[in-house]
Amino acid sequence: MKSVSVVIIGAGPAGLLLGQLLRTSGIETVILEQRSPDYVLGRIRAGVLEQGAVSLMRQAGCSERMDKEGIVHHGTALMVDGEMHRIDFRELTGSSVLVYGQTEVTRDLMDARAASGATTIYDAEDVSLSGLDSTRPVVRYRKDGVEHEMACDVVAGCDGFHGVSRRSIPADVLKTYERVYPFGWLGLLSDTPPVDDELIYINDPRGFALCSMRSQTRSRYYIQCGLDEKIEDWSDERFWDALQARLPDAHQSRLVRGPSIEKSIAPLRSFVAEPMRYGRLFLAGDAAHIVPPTGAKGLNLAASDVYYLWQGLKDFYHHGKSDGLDGYAEKALARVWKAERFSWWMTTMLHRFPDQPAFETKMQKAELAYLFSSRAAMTALAENYVGLPY
Ligand code: RFL
Ligand code: PHB
């Protein structure tokens, strides 16, 4: 049977970043990914990186293009009742975020892994895990119709929300916490200049909207939509009209329309699985938790999990100590729950809920009025948005 130190399940940002960081520490990995590289790169997702994630890309030796092309944002705007309020990250926290797409992060990590000669097995079917409660787990998969098995010391479950890793933890060990929101985000990507230099989060009676970007020439926009909406019913024209109606007056005439490069609907969910470790299996990223995208935290949480796991694995392989791995789940979850709170708070404050009682609308308005009147409250938002410390 083949054997490797660490098997990583999933070649999303969590799996690829962990692979590169472990490589800098001389720890050998094999990544198993059920999809093709093109499929992985075709998913348009996150756009905002915290400094912690930026720093990990640098430590992984994958920051050349990010440092050149990423756009530093020192603040963001919230639009409520037709009025724009700017949250100044730099003034309130001394920090900032970097706008650099998840697609680009993934591409840079994939390229670096390919150049390093480390093994990534794409189109790996029917991955299954066994012996997780022993010191020598075995991972099985099928590739081009041929069955394979691999022994390892540790399995890193980086296979996202629908992956096999979390499902391999016995049901009587795993506890899950979940909130499903009664709306989704309809997103559109287009090669048009963004409507503003910074992101704008909009609370509008017609529903939430977000103006984001990938570069000076590529925009990413989202509008809140019902869960029963079908993407086929949304022509580009219909999307642009709905977005424009939610924009502040001054921005309506500035909006540049263009054909969509990508258009998709994402449901919104908060989800946490505890513990994030079972024997020699360690979950990281969306495999263990989901946040609604309103706080831009999903990819960034994957990065902080990977950081803690990397530290634990270095201690294990270089110093023969398992304290880091033993404390992994608790450390990661402490940060996860704070990001869950922030994402839930931003989502609740900025969206229109179906059949929202008048009392809830008043509460939202009071929350927002307080936020803009209090430097302390704005600092709390800014501190969470730029990212809590690892
Ligand atoms: P991923 O990216 O889902 O990757 C998991 C990989 O595992 C593979 N896989 C398997 N491989 C082998 N065997 C199996 N059985 C497997 N099952 C699955 C999958 O094919 C995939 O390649 O998880 P990862 O690496 O944990 O990364 C998490 C992030 O992708 C996610 O949290 C973010 O995209 C969330 N997110 C955002 N996060 C931010 O930090 N900032 C943002 O601005 C932001 N915006 C967003 C977002 C997510 C969105 N959607 C669509 C959910 C905006 C949106 C619209
Ligand atoms: C994005 O650009 O895709 C994006 C930005 C900020 C968010 C969510 C998504 O809060």
Detailed description of the structure:
By secondary structure, this protein is an alpha+beta fold. It has a domain of 237 residues: 3-Layer(bba) Sandwich (FAD/NAD(P)-binding domain). Helices cover 37% and strands 30% of the residues. The protein contains 13 helices and 19 strands. The strands form three sheets. Strands 1, 2, 8, 9, 10, 11, 17 and 18 form an eight-stranded mixed sheet that branches. α1 crosses α6, α9 runs antiparallel to α11 and α12 crosses α13. The chain is globular. Bound molecules: 8-demethyl-8-dimethylamino-flavin-adenine-dinucleotide (RFL) and P-hydroxybenzoic acid.
Number of helices: 13
Low-confidence stretches: none
Structural category is alpha+beta
Shape: globular
Mean pLDDT: 97
Main sheet, how many strands, which sense, barrel?
8 strands, mixed
Computed Rg: 21 Å
Number of strands: 19
What's the CATH superfamily of the domain at 2-72 and 97-179 and 269-351, by name?
Answer: FAD/NAD(P)-binding domain
What CATH calls the topology of the domain at 2-72 and 97-179 and 269-351 is FAD/NAD(P)-binding domain
User: Ends: how far apart?
Assistant: 38 Å
Could you say which small molecules are bound to this protein? 8-demethyl-8-dimethylamino-flavin-adenine-dinucleotide, P-hydroxybenzoic acid
Q: What is the CATH architecture assignment of the domain at 2-72 and 97-179 and 269-351?
A: 3-Layer(bba) Sandwich
Question: Helix fraction?
Answer: 25-40%
Q: Tell me, what is the CATH class of the domain at 2-72 and 97-179 and 269-351?
A: Alpha Beta
Proportion of beta-strand residues: 25-35%
